[in-house]
Amino acid sequence: MSADRRRPLLVRVLLQPAVAVGLSLTEWDLLLRQARRSNLAGKLAEQMAQGGWLDTLPEPVRPHLRSALLLSRRQVQMLRREVDLLRQTLAELPGPLILLKGAAYALGGHAPAPGRMFSDIDLLIPPEQLPRCETTLLVHGWDFDDGLDAYDQRYYREWMHELPPLHHKRRGTSLDVHHTLLPPTARTPLDARALFDAPRPLPDLPGVFVLPPEDMLLHSAAHLFHEGELPNGLRDLFDLDALLREFGALDGFWPRLTARARRIGLARPLWLALRYTRMLLDTPYPDELPAALGPPPGPVALRLLDACYRRALRPAHDSCRLPGHDLAEGALYVRSHWLRMPWGLLARHLARKAWGRMTAMPEAPKVDVPGAARGDG
To answer: DSSP letter string over 281-348?
Structure first.
């Protein structure tokens, strides 16, 4: 079997959208289920629309794609309004308001944006402005998510790189306020101040910025390969693929990217991003690029990482699971926490979370809902 045929149906279609034209109804049923569970239905719909195939697809398929298309485009309109309200609310903060991830892609007009679904807005502000920012948001109708106990509050405030998740009591919007990109307890030293060196303004939103191309890509890499956000792993891998293809066309981008990764301390997440985007999505970049980031993981560690990520970075649907999937996800979950905090703190934290899972009420079974967005920004 060719390497392409071994890929899940969703990955094959997103890499070569014209393949979708010849699919049977049974294959379309599977494709839509894989896309919804992976939070990629909007991307699939955009590809069909941009390729001019949407009106030629089987009639039962079209409503699902048009619904995903409408939902993703409506979300961008709502995002713009919400960011404008945030800009007004936080206008007195002296530093920049920097959008991250999905909001930055959408309002910055970047390649991952078409059809991309997200459920919250991610904002980066200088750490010294965090207390004032929090107070201002609380006064203007924002509140912390229900269910956070004293331990969770302490976890976010002492050990994490963001405030506890916020939601607006009237509008229902979710917000994550970051003061850096990695937890302060992380094993990877990060030059957090450098993130505010040269943010790029959004012309129609005064006071609102996005990261420059190098930092935007590095944050995407760190989010997936350091923080271990696996529920949306395949979506985030496609984000990286799109950013590498978009920014790689800029003059002098590759040397700037490697220099920046070494300077701010994100060379290893970038190395992993390069490895798995090429392995799983055939992403183009200069062959010598990974070597410029320093030595790779040792052979045993690399075999383990390959085994885990080959399983975890697949569509989040039962049809795509490989043997050992749960073990791989568990190992990557522990790895992400090991990268975040020292051993003593890690052991205590994982023990508490395990106890919480054992004593929690069981979740309702997951249902494929057309167009539903899951996960973070």
So the answer is: H-----TTTGGGG-PPPPHHHHHHHHHHHHHHTS-SSGGG--TTHHHHHHHHHHHHHHHHS-HHHHHH
